[in-house]
């Protein structure tokens, strides 16, 4: 059960006695730079992070707005007000509310509302007054500083019918860090706060020491800086003000490999059954290869959560619940070689491919090798195989695996995005050249003469590839490279079984009806995958559901 928030008697600050009985401690002076994403000139006050200081008392006044109390058995609530014209104009992206939501939830506080308001006193004051009466805590972000558009202190004062007035401790800090005493200097604006302000001093979690500068609060309103790094440090240093030990949020997640519309009846049934006890969220994901919908279940009761989870698992169609694999790269060596040793039909293909790759690694150093990679399904499977072999042979190495991307005219944007994501995922070195394959290899030889071999994702069913060998030199009129072809005897179905069995990410276009990818000018969705859905719309099945492998390239012009 969450204790009701305390409403102070007249003349006592709501924060005069911290809820957990601990003494609040100083927080970084740096947070004063404050409004969302805005830069402030560097100075001694902004950077002060030295430990020291103790709790300072502050004057307080009766609350102008009554503070809400949490209902018995319910979590404390919070409202977040993000302040800044630049947020509303799209000039700065707000990340503060996201951070606040995560931190507060971990502390047992339910964020009930987020609002973004301009740098206008009346707009801020109105929102603060509304939020303060409605939520246990109000956290503002931004609008703290010495310039004309830093108006948060003034607005919070107006929300409670107060004036802004110089606070003696803040005046002393301005003098200490800026050497200024003139009441009208811009820096002194940082010391003018609402009359009933309380100064909250936080603890540096890294050192256990105290920060030099406090965070100002008025009643149940906590006025945070807008610069993300400073806001995060301030909130982390003051978690004891918000922590609710009696409340813990429990969460479960289910990943579903089915369209949301198909599972809607089950979701409706679960929502009706656990209404008020478990919150159920459904979030489609069009970019993930292995699930279509992410379901989240949240509850303050672990028992209710588990009941709802098992209820859904039983109601959802068989086979649609899938695991979430966020990293297929780290365990690649163990999983790929495990598959090769399994004795299955696919395992035998994998074992043969690994033997070819290992032979290439015996002949050439990593500096002499590169992997041909254009983002297609075959070279994606090849890259995963090569990565596994290299990891097994050289788990600790400085040299990166090199990848050759021959960029064509009019590539799909999705393909380019996938290539860049793959570079990050495997931590590989990408070399991009343009032109035909032959022209690209000429340029490559000029740029990197040390390269002697290229691993290719070629299969025998590819054009002009039926007579190739696993290792063969390029034709005499081509730049001299050893072509290494580990996948020659793989089928279309082998490639898809390998990728999906190991949860290897692939280009999302393959989930949208494409089976063979070229450029935007010569590639269409495969008509063999076309169907009419339940709502009468033309849709396409994913590439791995193609029934006749001979139709793989019928969509290439």
Low-confidence stretches: 1-66, 69-73
Q: Give me the Rg, rounded.
A: 31 Å
Distance between the termini: 66 Å
Shape: elongated
Q: How much helix, percentage-wise, in residues?
A: 25-40%
Strand order of the largest sheet: 2-1-3-8-7-6
Which secondary-structure class do the elements indicate? alpha/beta
Q: Mean pLDDT, nearest integer?
A: 87
Discrete helix count: 14
Q: How large a portion of the residues is in β-strands, by DSSP E?
A: 15-25%
Q: What profile does the largest beta sheet have?
A: 6 strands, mixed
Give me the count of strands.
20
Topology:
Elements: E1 76-83, H1 85-88, H2 96-106, E2 109-117, H3 121-134, E3 137-141, H4 152-159, E4 164-166, H5 168-178, E5 192-194, E6 198-200, E7 215-218, E8 221-224, H6 228-237, E9 250-256, H7 260-273, E10 279-284, E11 293-299, H8 302-315, E12 321-322, H9 332-340, H10 345-363, E13 369-372, H11 377-393, E14 402-407, H12 413-426, E15 429-434, H13 437-447, E16 453-455, E17 471-473, E18 482-484, H14 492-501, E19 530-532, E20 538-540
Parallel strand pairs: 1-2, 1-3, 3-8, 13-14, 13-16, 14-15, 16-18
Antiparallel strand pairs: 4-5, 6-7, 7-8, 9-11, 9-12, 10-11, 17-18, 19-20
What does this structure look like?
- The chain has 557 residues and is of the alpha/beta class.
- It is built from 14 helices and 20 strands.
- The strands form 5 sheets. Strands 2-1-3-8-7-6 form a 6-stranded mixed sheet, with helices on both faces.
- A hairpin with an 8-residue loop joins strand 10 (279-284) and strand 11 (293-299).
- Helix 9 packs across helix 11 and helix 11 crosses helix 14.
- The protein is elongated, with a radius of gyration of 31 Å.
- The termini are far apart.
